[in-house]
Every structure is written in C-alpha cells, then in structure tokens.
Amino acid sequence: MSKAIQTIVFVDDDRIQHMINRKNMLRLKEDLNLQFFENPFSALDWFASNDADLLILDVNMPEMKGWEFLDRLKVLNKTIEVKMLTSSVDPDDIEISTQYNMVSGFLVKPLKNDIMAEILGL
C-alpha cells in the first residue's frame, strides 16, 4: 500500500487556479498540507529545506518552464512524484517527460474533483 499523500506543492503562475485547487482539495481531505507558489524560484527556495509527497507543476510558466524547474530540483537532490499541469497535453511535452523518472503523468487545467480525489487515493 502506498504512503498517504499529506503534503502537495503546486507550482503554477495562475493565482485563480490556486484558490480553486486549495478549496477543492481541502474539501476532499481537510488535513492536507498544501503549498502554493506562483513563482518557481520561490518554490525552489521552499524545496531547499522542505519535502513533499507530490508536486503538481505547470509546464508553461513565464519565469521558468516546468522542465527547467525539474532540472533544478534534481540539483537539490529531491526525489518526488510529479504531475505536470497543462492547459492542453502537447505530444512534445509527453516525449520530454520520458526523460524525467519523477514525472508520473499529466493533469489538464482546471483540475476536476474526480481527478483530485484520484490523486489523493479517495
């Protein structure tokens, strides 16, 4: 049986998605530790001294692409399950994801409640 997800980090430049995801995730499981970052550099600073069970990472952000974020996470020696978050699944992104063992799939924005429940194992 896999370990229950307790800490989820969202890295996405869309503040409205953060508000929606926070509300819906906590409705499903109220004791989650949710961390939200609009800026990927702030998220990397957080990861330098913290761990999480799951990272939900936007593929396309203005400051840094999700792939570059993963490269920087590797430098921090972090191993974490990652779900890439995107507005539409691009075949090129799927191909790139095969280079990252930590990427376990893609999620399409906006996250639906049934997908959130599946992520949480509910």
UniProtKB/TrEMBL annotation:
<dbReference type="Pfam" id="PF00072">
    <property type="entry name" value="Response_reg"/>
</dbReference>
<dbReference type="InterPro" id="IPR001789">
    <property type="entry name" value="Sig_transdc_resp-reg_receiver"/>
</dbReference>
<dbReference type="InterPro" id="IPR011006">
    <property type="entry name" value="CheY-like_superfamily"/>
</dbReference>
<dbReference type="InterPro" id="IPR050595">
    <property type="entry name" value="Bact_response_regulator"/>
</dbReference>
<protein>
    <submittedName>
        <fullName>Response regulator</fullName>
    </submittedName>
</protein>
<dbReference type="GO" id="GO:0000160">
    <property type="term" value="P:phosphorelay signal transduction system"/>
</dbReference>
<feature type="domain" description="Response regulatory">
    <location>
        <begin position="7"/>
        <end position="122"/>
    </location>
</feature>
<keyword id="KW-0597">Phosphoprotein</keyword>
<feature type="modified residue" description="4-aspartylphosphate">
    <location>
        <position position="58"/>
    </location>
</feature>
